[in-house]
Design goal:
The chain is α/β, with parallel strands linked by helices. It has two domains: 131 residues, Aspartate Aminotransferase, domain 1, CATH 3.90.1150.10; 240 residues, Type I PLP-dependent aspartate aminotransferase-like (Major domain) (Aspartate Aminotransferase, domain 2), CATH 3.40.640.10. The protein has twelve helices and 17 strands. A seven-stranded mixed β-sheet has the order 2-10-9-8-7-3-4, sandwiched between helices. Strands 13-14-17-16 form a four-stranded antiparallel β-sheet. It has a two-stranded parallel ribbon with strand order 1-15. α2 runs antiparallel to α9. It starts with 15 loop residues before the first helix and ends with a helix. The mean pLDDT is 97. The chain binds D-malate (MLT).
Amino acid sequence: MICMNLNYMKVKESYLFADIRRRVEEWSKENPGKMILRLGIGDVTQPLTPSVIKALHEAVEEQAHAETFHGYMPECGDSQLRLAIAKWYQKRNIPVDESEVFVSSGASDEFGDILHLFDKSLPAMIPEPAYPAYADANVMDGREIIFPRMTEDFLPVPPEKEIQALIYLCSPDNPTGAVCTRECLEEWIAYAVKTKSVILFDAAYESFITEENIPRSVYEIKGAKECAIEISSLSKTAGFTGTRCGYTVIPTALERDGLSLNAMWVRNRTTRTNGVSYILQKGALAVFSEEGQKEVRELHEVYRANAHNFMKALEEAGLSYAGGKNSPYIWMKCPDPLGSWEVFDILLKQAEIVATPGAGFGASGEGWIRFSMFANEEDVKEAGRRIVLLRNEKYF
Ligand code: MLT
């Protein structure tokens, strides 16, 4: 009798970012004392903002006294935080009710957990190249994966064939930095409504959108509340990669097979988690205050300046790229005839720069390599300088 989930045999032995970490560690051991510039994983480098730190300290202090101590938190999230997130949407004329907001420990956790709501026979439709956790989590579940066509600008196109599926959309996109236009989202919503599919919209990078007419939430599009779940996180918007807090919106209007997905998620959360810690939720609440929002906007300026400097360096080096404008990721075309792992090796071994090979985001990412602009300012400038030198010395 088989007792294990054999689908684990179908995923690569290690996760993309674990694989890169291992390769960099091995190389560092053999080459001690090198100053490595880490533009690989999208991990933030700016500290948490003053409002968040103050709120965290206060919450810790509250836990030290019987009168202010908090035990278990509501599994779906602290009501103050749910309300603050709902209001933050409402301020942008997006009608989200606090009962539709669920506090989570981050988007990546949530993208795996949410699959529990869906039957394993429902295929996942994943526009590739894509954040590798989408496909890996579905393969582990034994789900079939369909790859819709992408335009040259990395915008996903709904298939002609009507397929009911779990549709992944990410905007600004990881890894390409492409942003879904209003028209692109309208097409997908029409497709999802027609096929009774459910869209999982990854909004983790929404705060990097600078263009006015680009939607920051799927719910800016009519009909989305009947077909889409929005999963977001404070990791990239407020520097919470190591602190962990995010949120998911499941509209009460979203039903499939006569079941409310919102009610199912309440049932799921109240059973399978005791929620996010009181202290972290207090920190998260501070992000949604007026002061908190001002501070995170300043934080974004640092990463935007990084993108600006790095794009300038790539242009000086005569290299083509996408992203970087509404996104903290820059998606560089590998110079012919090099593959993405070859460019990864040249960057690491000749210039001590860590990037993420496009092939790690799926077969269609081959020929590209991703740089994260979440690195610190000096490292990004130095990486730009080193890439210009590599080009001058004809390494690629
Ligand atoms: C990335 O580099 O793609 C992300 O930082 C990974 C993540 O958010 O888990």
